[in-house]
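Predict both folds.
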Amino acid sequence: MNDGTPSVPDEAIGGPFVLKPNARSMFQLALGSATTVATMMVLPDAVGIIPVVPDPLTWLMRMIGLWLSGFIQWTISFLALLHFARFVGGGILLTPEGIRIWRFGKEIKWGNIKALTVETQPLFSAAFRLKPVARRLLIFEEKPAAGPAAGFPGQKRLVPHPVPSFQFLPAEFISLFAHLSQASFGFVPHSLDSFVLSPGAEPFLKAASDRARAVRKILSVVIAVGLVMFLGRRASENYFFNSGNSYFRKENYAEAAKLYALATKVDPTFAAGWDLLARAEFRMGDIKNSEQHWHRALQMKPDLIESKLGLSNIYLRRNELDKAERLLNQCALLAPHNSAVYLNQAELYVKLGEKERVHHLLEVVTRESSENAEALARAAKIYLQLKEDELARGLAERALQIDPANASAKIVIQFMRNSH
């Protein structure tokens, strides 16, 4: 049987016999498909991270890391899915009466099998690194006609049932083909490259083959076009978004906003793009558009903390304290240890005159974010509002020790010098 000549397995004679997908073959499929899938997954990032990497070597190392991560994740998850399908499907059941392709499928009687054919799949095999080349066994079952022809007595149709070879070892697949041929037609072909059919089945088989060929072509075109569009959209979306991040870090908010807007045009459901577009607009003083775009981000992702915080800043400026408090309470539930949430709540309670709450929140920030220069600088600003200059000075100096270039801390120190 290992020489590639079909022969009937002894175990199947007399039946019943269950042929289960082979674990080694499933592992080979998982590894082969992981190579292709990981490569396709990193293609958008290959373009998208160009604006944020300093040199080609860094780009290459990032790509290798992303590829390995995708490869490992796909291999593990897809292999688990294959084993789950193997358990649920239960394998191919061969009995003296017929064949059942999976556990919950209907049995196909030997007398109803009117044709068998094995197709090679070179493109599929190349794409998923399968060796030897994968094949697909098609079992054509005779059934009563459906559709307009169903009203005519005696009308029949052939329904193909595919069985892919990549589930099994090559010898197992060859033996399966041999057993089906023997049980349905009374002989075993000398090669897998055979077309076995019963007399009179040619017209039905041609119609079924034409339909299957047309469906495969349409499906291939749809998949190819969809894949190109998806990868192209992801690549351009990531490129615009990361380019915007680069300008945002340089405080060029106008250019950043243009690039974030392009990212959201490519993908109108991109919540992070809408959020950072709003943040750039807020930094430029465009309150109307920033409010609108933060709401848009929350439509896409209702639990996006950054957008809720952004809107709370707008409401605090307008003294719409009820709205600000409601949003900040939601943020505190979603992210109970977020220093930005604590600081916005502290600003809220300054406006409400609840000094004890302000002190409690600032103490939490200085304790939990003791290495966060921006959080310490913001806390110093709030202490200035409370006219507690020594606490403000201490936090601003700590912030400058962590980050000597921190602008907020420098503003606090300069303000205190001018006031004295």
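Second protein follows, with its predicted structure tokens after the sequence.
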Amino acid sequence: MPEPIRVDVAIVPTAAYVERDLAQLEAAIHAEAAQAADEAAAHHLFRENWSRLSPQTTRRHEGDLALFAMYLSEVRAIDPASVVSVGARLPYHPDAWRNTTWGIVQGFVDWQLNRGFAIGSINVRLATVKRYCKLAMTAGALDPGVFQRISTIRGFGGMAARNVDAHRVQQQIPTRIGAKKAEPTPLDDDQVAQLTQQPDTPIGRRDALLMCLLLDHGLRVGEIARLTIGDINLDARSLTFYRPKVNLSQVHRLTPATLRAARAFLRRDRAGAAPEAALLIGGSREGPLEGTFGVRAMQLRVRQLGQVVGVATLSPHDCRHRWATRAAQAGTPITDLRDAGGWANFDTPSRYVERAKVANEGVRLTRPRRPMPPEADEEDGA
């Protein structure tokens, strides 16, 4: 008798089977492993945030959070003996933000106001604290409802900032502490000419190129510090450079003064140097040029050169301000000014354009007709 034919039938799982299998799978993930994974992901979130920041921004965040830790210590939110360790943990560890509340962050703003910090600095530090509160909320260290309240805290801008400062002045509270200037130091044309025409010495030729890059091209000091010899093309009369603040590479046509300074410096002081070598290097007044010439050294040198022409506190940013002001006064379109200055939006260049405007340029007035004397009326009627 022949054997019966076997037919394999695919069994389609029902919804009940699927739910049972999922429940078994979920039960198979140990709670300890899940907690460890969450903790690892939370720490990775903070490390990833830190890796995205530029060196300048990381230094600012460290300073902002160190001041936040100092505030926490003064209001007894943390043990005063732990202020340094807490300040060091805040940028990297989500657990350091546990128990942060709306009142603590708002209190940080008020604490700074009462101690005379500038409104701009207060706004920046508030943004830093809120950024890390958001990271802590994502990492599970801060309750979403608490973060939602913290996110409602606003800084000060425009008229509100001026009103707050006026109120602080009435209470004899400083409106700015520290070395940063409230307003840029102005430079006249004669001072600009002196700064870009330095003595014919190795350090003088280097300084002339430095000041031309600042005053004729509006480069940020950090952008100049990154320049290499290969970035300048004397034949094409061009400069190629990178703007890390906006993640953008640009090409500038060298001005006549910058071209002369670059030719003199490269041919007489940097001949034979590799294209990837730093463009500007250190040196003393008496000795040869050698060593590094970083951002802080450039800032100090600009200050020294400013003192020679009668400007006590000249900074690289003052030079950038002067460049943008000259460009706006010459009628540079705001789009071209934004692009040449390496700004991400129109906010900053628009301020220069607005300041350069003549307020009543577009006003047209009709001259009132002078009434004719009575004698003339009688003659006309005769």
